[in-house]
Amino acid sequence: MTMSSLELRSVPFFNYPHVFKSHEAEFMAIFADVGCRGAFIDQKDLKEFEADLAVYTGARYALGVADGTDALIIAAICAGVQPGDEVIFCTHTMVATAASIHFAGATPVAVECGPDHLIDPVAVESAITKRTKAIFPTQLNGRVCDMERLQAIADRHGLFIIEDAAQALGAKYKGRAAGTFGLAGTISFYPAKTLGSLGDGGAILTNDAAMFERMRCMRDHGRNADGEVVRWGLNSRLDNLQAAFLHHRLRGYDESIRRRREIASLYHSLLGDIPEVVLPPAPCSHGRFDIFQNFEIEAEHRDELKSFLASRGVGTLIQWGGRMVHQFKSLQFGCSLPNSERLCTRMLMLPLNLSISNEDVAYVADGIRAFYRG
Ligand SMILES: *Cc1c(COP(=O)(O)O)cnc(C)c1O
């Protein structure tokens, strides 16, 4: 055994200061520029970022909002989700997906995820009732759902789709970007997301002019372009300073994605032969371009593996704290979704971020191998 394989490393699950530290001079220059212009609210930095985000995703319109949760709430309300409606979502998602349906006054209906950890189209179809209004699929872990099947189901039943693409900026399905399939798609710029801001931030994508106009008004107190109040609104503008930071990061985003996919490939080559572990699909598969927001594996003896890796300095994360949305008792879903509940006991996210080296990845993989060899 070489010395290096005996050495303990520290591989944190996510390194929050890393993005700032690795671009500190640029960020400070942006801060000074925005500050000296006094350009804090809804200024050109926001408009320019929105324009480039639309170009990047191929969406007709992009709208910056306060965060990914507001993006969902605004999209749901402006799409016309209302009391009496049911909206179908996958229980393997952040609670915010369901919260947006709740705050629009409708009933969130949780369904199973399939073996790819994404919403199961068969489960969607069997959950449809006379009250169903829409489907809110989550493009989880940076991978796009089977949008053709979902759209076919939606068309058959007269439903619309809003994509929770919080984790999937730049992910594609058959050449088309996450967030551009449905009536609207939402993005999060939470710092640990693939395009993280230095705080909270979010965006909504849409190709529908009327939908865009409703959402633009709603994020700004219901005011139209003339400043007249034309509907009930919120204050949910994406902070202009964050927009300036994000615009800067967007220029290097393709390179970040290239690196994320490289790390995913490395995990695949190092872990592919361990029978106790199920890996997510490899980077190039089934017409998809995955951006690997997360590398979520399924693992036998998951909790013991997590502790073992922690003892070797490797940070891992169990998504949503190990609970699917329908399992939060206070939210009173009262349903049972056995496939997702089983997945919940097995899923584990390995470190995949821009601060880790190939040696770190090999070290994580060595740890997993050592755990199962006993
Ligand atoms: C992060 C996330 C959100 C919420 O985004 P915020 O910007 O934190 O409000 C919603 N849905 C999913 C799937 C997410 O991962």
Structure, described:
The chain contains 14 helices and 14 strands. With 374 residues, the protein is of the alpha/beta class. It has two domains: 21-251, 3-Layer(aba) Sandwich (Aspartate Aminotransferase, domain 2), CATH 3.40.640.10; 253-373, Aspartate Aminotransferase, domain 1. The strands form three sheets. Strands 1-9-8-5-4-2-3 form a seven-stranded mixed β-sheet, sandwiched between helices. The chain has a four-stranded antiparallel β-sheet with strand order 7-6-12-11, with no helix packed on it. It has a three-stranded antiparallel β-sheet with strand order 10-13-14. A hairpin with a 2-residue loop joins strand 11 and strand 12 (288-289). Helix 3 (24-37) runs antiparallel to helix 10 (240-251) and helix 5 (68-78) runs parallel beside helix 6 (95-103). The longest helix is centred in the last third of the chain and has 19 residues, at 253-271. It is globular. Bound molecules: pyridoxal-5'-phosphate. The site of pyridoxal-5'-phosphate has 15 residues, from helix 5 and helix 6.
